[in-house]
Amino acid sequence: MAKALLKKLLAKSEISTLVQAFCQTAQTPVCIYDDKGTPLFGDPGVQEFKCTIPLREGDRIIGAVKGGDDCTIVASLLQYMLNAESERVALGRETLEKYREISMLCDFGAKIGSCLETKEVVRIITGEIRKLLTADIIAVLLCNDHEVITDILSDDGSGEELLVVSLAEGEVVENFLITATPEIVNDLASDPRCAGAPRTFSSTMCVPLKIQEKTVGYVSVNSMKPLEYRARDLKLLTTLSDQTAVALEKARLYKRLEETFYATIRTLAETIEKRDPYTGNHTKRVVDYSLAIAGKLGLPKEYYVRLELAAALHDIGKLGVRDDVLLKDGPLTADEFAHMKKHPTYGEEILKHIKHLEDVIPGIKYHHERCDGQGYPYGLKGEEIDITARIIAVADSFDAMTTDRPYRTALSLDVAFKELIKFSGTQFDAAVVEAFLSVPVREELGMNEGE
After folding, report:
1. d(CA 6, CA 20)
2. Residue 364 near residue 351, CB atoms below 8 Å
3. Residue 35: how many CB atoms within 10 A of its CB?
4. Which of 182, 184, 248, 265 ranks highest by number of CB atoms within 10 Å?
């Protein structure tokens, strides 16, 4: 690079012209060499040169100017231009490096900012750190609300799933150096905080993850071989960690919100069961049957959550059914049955204002539709009926047939299976019935005669 810099400078016509003009004016030859002694300008065979003046880039000699006493003027001029060119190149290199760093941070922020799962946040930051820094183990240590480390997610660079490590508080201290401020320790063996503790790593960097004054975790970058982590490395890690702390806190809050949401769903499901005591645990069984069918059908995983929620809430509309109809101890009259048939639409009305349940409503609204179009409330046919509703229809009907009701005793499993087969393709989706009747599903659910 240094040799190229001098050669590049002399290749500029204005520089070579200026040097030639000086030689002619001063009537003294000048010869310019690189650091290997190769001539880059002038004729070294003209005469013996009295003076040799080195040319430098920083502390390095990258060439020399040889000539008479007046060659110092040429040497000074070239040295000035070399310094300017070197600064320009360094500034360009630094600018490019800063641009790449800013672009990386923007991309990182976009990726991590839209992430709502803790493990995915950790996977993103460890992957980014591994691109930028040398490390054997990168660990993210997560804290609870009391700032006590509860979980350690570790990436060993193998590309495998993140390793979740469970360590007692003392074991954390032995395995990771945890510091309250960003810190580099390039020689752990000589650090007094590690005295007496078994130490796997030789060099480490640790950055706390903070939201305002609250510590939500730590990022620990570790090398088994001695390394010289630099202040620039720590600054970059700190910048990444600042964004990660925000993302982790957001993921934590989202998880709590999600848990509250599912708790509300369970409460709604329990409310339905308490309203209709004759169907004890009906909701749980319909959920279990539905998920087993989905597994047998090989449905994508994204269906599972909405199927589970739809199955749990499939009878939520019964909250709108009158007690004298819902709790009647005997068969319903035509008018009463017409009122009962409204519960799928009541379910839609109850849930339609909850945005997170928009894709769950079809399973609730259509679970009494029939593949032959003779169902209710809309008379849909076949594929017009949402797959979650077709699955729930089979699970719901089977459980209704195999449990005692006020107006009849439970059917045997064999009779219930025969009913499903009898109405396969008319009332029920044939593929769903086939999945439900398959031996693996029956065994998985423990559906044995006499239960």
Report:
1. 16
2. yes
3. 16
4. 248
CA-CA distances (angstroms) from residue 439 to 195, 293, 444, 447, 450?
61, 12, 9, 10, 17
Mean pLDDT, residues 19-29? 77
CB atoms within 10 A of CB 292: 21
Contact 206/245 with Cβ under 8 angstroms?
no
> So where are the chain's domains?
2-95, 118-250, 276-445
Q: What is the CATH number of domain 118-250?
A: 3.30.450.40
Q: Is 228 exposed, middle or buried (0-12, 13-18, 19+ CB in 10 A)?
A: exposed
Classify 101 as helix, strand or coil: helix
pTM of the predicted protein model: 0.60
Residue 404, C-beta contacts closer than 8 angstroms, at least 6 positions apart = 278, 410
Asked if 136 and 222 touch (Cβ cutoff 8 Å), the reply is yes
CATH superfamily of this structure's domain 276-445: Hypothetical protein af1432 (1.10.3210.10)
d(CA 116, CA 300): 21
| Six-digit token string for 128 | 């980014």
pLDDT by residue (tens digit) across 376-406? 999 999 999 999 999 999 999 999 898 877 6
Is the peptide bond prior to 29 cis by the omega test (within 30 degrees of 0)?
no
Biggest distance spanned by C-alpha atoms of the chain: 125
Q: What are the pLDDT digits (tens) for 141-193?
A: 998 888 888 888 888 877 777 777 666 656 666 678 888 899 999 988 888 87
